[in-house]
Amino acid sequence: MQERIRKFHHNRIFALVFWLVVVFAAIVTLPNVNTIIQYDGQPQLANTSQPIKATQIKNHWGRNLDGTYTVNAVFNNPTGKLTNKQQAAINKTTSALQKKASYYGIQKITTITNTPTSKPQLLSKDQSTEIVQLAVSHNQGPVRSIASQLNGQIATAGLDTYVTSPEIVNDAANQHISSFTLIVILMTLLIALVAMGILFASVIAPIITFLAILISYISTLSLATNLAYHWNFAYSEYTPIFLLLGISLFTLLTSFWFFRELRNRIDDGVESQAATTQVIHSLGYRVLISTLSLTLAFGSLVFFNFSTIRAYSLLGIGFAITGIASVTLIPVFSGMLGHSLFWPKKTRPELKDRKLWFHLAKFGLWQPWIAVLVVLYFAGAFTFGSRQPLSYNNAQDIPNNQAVQGARILSAHFGQGKSTPVTLYIQNKQRFDNQNQLYQLDNLTKKLRAQPGVAAVTSVTQPGGQPITQYYVANQLSSLDTNLSGVIGQLKSVQKSLKSDRSDLKQKDLTTEVKRVNKLATTATRLSGESSSLQSAIQAAQSTSTASGNASKKAARYVKQLNQVNSQLNTALSQLNTLTNTISTTSSEAGTVSTNLSTYETGIKAVNASLKQTRKQVQKLNTSLTQMYTYLGGLQTSEAAKSLYLTPTQIASGDFQQALVNFTDTKVKTTALTITLKREPNAKTTAKTLANLKRVATSQLRGTSLKDADLTFSGQPVVMATIQRQYQHDLVRVLLLVFGLTFLLLILFSRSVLQSTYWFLTFLASAGIGYQLTHVLMQWLTGNDTFNWQVPLLAFVPVTVLAVVELTQLALSYRLNQTGLLDWLLPGIAEAGQTMRHSLFIIIAGVLGLLAASSQVLTAVALITIITAVVFNLALPVMAASFGKLSVIIPAQKPYHFHFGRGPKAKRSARPTRQEVRQQRETNHDSDEN
């Protein structure tokens, strides 16, 4: 049993079992990579960032709108304006969608029909495109499935329809990355297999390398995705690709070292297991320091807060696993297979002496200053040339996608920033349904709209993006001026009437009338007395006529006449009694009239005085109103008249209550302003515009009733600006940390500060040249003048592997050198150059798989890596030789001493003698020949 265990140990079977268990567990526990990319691929922002705070607000927003996506259903007529028939078709589609709202999780539908005040924001100016906004519940599923469902439901004959939103576009970007991730993985592994087959003219060796890459990659990927799935560790949408890139390149290089050394020892007759052990001892230190450098450099990124950068720390684990696999897994097969590993080629390949690095180094030794200046000139021209800002828009790399096309339609017909609006949430302690708060909100709306880069702003007071005239003082003053003008005219008529009435009430006429009535009353009294006397006489005459008896005919005739007279007198008496009564009444009434007229005269005097005073007051009031009219007319044309003033009636109106529903939360203590930018989000202007908007909003509310309100910005431009700010803040620190650690380890391994500095500066210059040349090529090939912000990070991986592998080899060669620097430069650099072509071939082959994806990002990464590798392998021997020689001969030169004394005692500056100069030249010449 012990012998069998010893045999298993000798053949490294336990290592093979260990790796089989590891890869089996990795495959079994590997989560769905596409799902992880979809949900965790986007950068994870800090909880204190504006977008995360806005998400928390939106989760409790509106009337039954918490936990919803805002989705735009876009209806476009590509041939011109929407016709009445097409408009009716849109209304029919919307009505049908409304009936199925609960099935599709739609909480609210906003159209130009049910929200007329928002028509300018829902219908384009050319009237060819209409938007129907949908609030869809998160419970309906991911945005990808929501877009798929709604896209089929809004299809309308004769119109192009799209379902789009920033969330759907971002998901489309993740979906695009997921679609080519598997292709890139397969192509990279296939090219690695072919590359190793070409290098060793073998079939078995590439398969072993393929298995080593596959096992290391699956183990690392499973660990990375499980960390993201179970422990919410940072994850990037490009995590599967950059893990493959780093692991495959490092495995290819270490496998090449191992197989080349193993082939030499086996061909020399060493037994396979012994040869494998010797190779491990020989290359173990080199593999160890390379693994340690890469593990520490990338593992240190775990200390960064930005999730995308922190995700690259998983490479530290990947390089550690790869390094262990290189010295444990590959030896298992090499020990068992031995010479069969290199089947079908039976003989050792003849190694030719490669002279490229030799000649480049010799040129550097011959003319070090010229070599340095030439390399620095080209490096400076490309490294410090024109620099374009990075792009933070993931949509530019997406092929034809309906959500992206819908966003482009919105940008074309509504303005570039329409598809990616900015939302400003304002949280206040007081409600927003009163004049004081609404006045401040309206002023803020107008202030934000006036800022550079802003196309439109909608708010509760301006739901359509434009002021509603009846809500403003100017419009209200116009009605007031009209009414005031009428009142002034009426006052002038009253003033004129008062003057006429006063002239009609003349006191003299009234006095004459009173005197006449008094005279009439006196006459009536006298007549009444005379009537009484006459009545007595008639009564006496009547009694006389009755007592005369039988008389003569004359008497009878007289009596007859007397009777007639008596009868007439009776009649006259009766009439006189009536007249007396009438006169008495008239006399009494005349007295009353006289009294009333006297009283009336006194009243008339008071009225006349009052009318005179009233006329003066009316005249004064008319003057005041005229001045007020003039003031209000001037106020109407001033800036003050542009202020908002909502009456309680207007606030209670249906239109304004609809605006409150759309722009405030349930408690009416949080409101939202939607800001549309003039340009789509970009690195040049978006961050500055948002910073200016935040500064202006804070300044505008300072000192008002909203001074204590909390302001929170959200939207895709805010997310991009947040990513840009964090990325730009961390990128320089990442470069300093990773390159700094690599540089320090290079110094440690080479035990030379000066030479390591020269080599590392050469690498940095080569990387700068590769970056700038790739930018020029990509602009020429695609017409796109900006790199995606992921490009520098992705290119950072293969470029760092290149630097570590090649500089580690040079550092070890320098450290193991037992001669002087000048004696080592030419042979040491030339020896390192023997594997240069193989390393260069492996680096180029390792990134060619990236070109299989239809992605500008990965194409740029491949070009940067290839150009950097080529430039670095051409510049390194020249710069290493030149700086190495200069670091020796410059300190060896004696300095000149200048003395300004005069006379025979003044000493001349010390100069080397001719013999010393001749000896120095001979020494340099001998060094060049060596």
Automatic annotation (TrEMBL):
<feature type="compositionally biased region" description="Basic residues">
    <location>
        <begin position="900"/>
        <end position="911"/>
    </location>
</feature>
<keyword id="KW-0175">Coiled coil</keyword>
<dbReference type="InterPro" id="IPR004869">
    <property type="entry name" value="MMPL_dom"/>
</dbReference>
<feature type="compositionally biased region" description="Basic and acidic residues">
    <location>
        <begin position="913"/>
        <end position="930"/>
    </location>
</feature>
<dbReference type="InterPro" id="IPR050545">
    <property type="entry name" value="Mycobact_MmpL"/>
</dbReference>
<feature type="domain" description="Membrane transport protein MMPL">
    <location>
        <begin position="68"/>
        <end position="367"/>
    </location>
</feature>
<keyword id="KW-0472">Membrane</keyword>
<keyword id="KW-1133">Transmembrane helix</keyword>
<protein>
    <submittedName>
        <fullName>RND superfamily drug exporter</fullName>
    </submittedName>
</protein>
<dbReference type="GO" id="GO:0005886">
    <property type="term" value="C:plasma membrane"/>
</dbReference>
<feature type="transmembrane region" description="Helical">
    <location>
        <begin position="756"/>
        <end position="773"/>
    </location>
</feature>
<feature type="transmembrane region" description="Helical">
    <location>
        <begin position="180"/>
        <end position="200"/>
    </location>
</feature>
<comment type="similarity">
    <text>Belongs to the resistance-nodulation-cell division (RND) (TC 2.A.6) family. MmpL subfamily.</text>
</comment>
<keyword id="KW-0812">Transmembrane</keyword>
<feature type="region of interest" description="Disordered">
    <location>
        <begin position="900"/>
        <end position="930"/>
    </location>
</feature>
<keyword id="KW-1003">Cell membrane</keyword>
<feature type="transmembrane region" description="Helical">
    <location>
        <begin position="287"/>
        <end position="306"/>
    </location>
</feature>
<feature type="transmembrane region" description="Helical">
    <location>
        <begin position="207"/>
        <end position="229"/>
    </location>
</feature>
<dbReference type="Pfam" id="PF03176">
    <property type="entry name" value="MMPL"/>
</dbReference>
<feature type="transmembrane region" description="Helical">
    <location>
        <begin position="835"/>
        <end position="854"/>
    </location>
</feature>
<feature type="transmembrane region" description="Helical">
    <location>
        <begin position="312"/>
        <end position="342"/>
    </location>
</feature>
<feature type="transmembrane region" description="Helical">
    <location>
        <begin position="793"/>
        <end position="814"/>
    </location>
</feature>
<feature type="transmembrane region" description="Helical">
    <location>
        <begin position="860"/>
        <end position="884"/>
    </location>
</feature>
<feature type="transmembrane region" description="Helical">
    <location>
        <begin position="363"/>
        <end position="384"/>
    </location>
</feature>
<feature type="transmembrane region" description="Helical">
    <location>
        <begin position="731"/>
        <end position="749"/>
    </location>
</feature>
<feature type="coiled-coil region">
    <location>
        <begin position="559"/>
        <end position="624"/>
    </location>
</feature>
<feature type="transmembrane region" description="Helical">
    <location>
        <begin position="241"/>
        <end position="259"/>
    </location>
</feature>
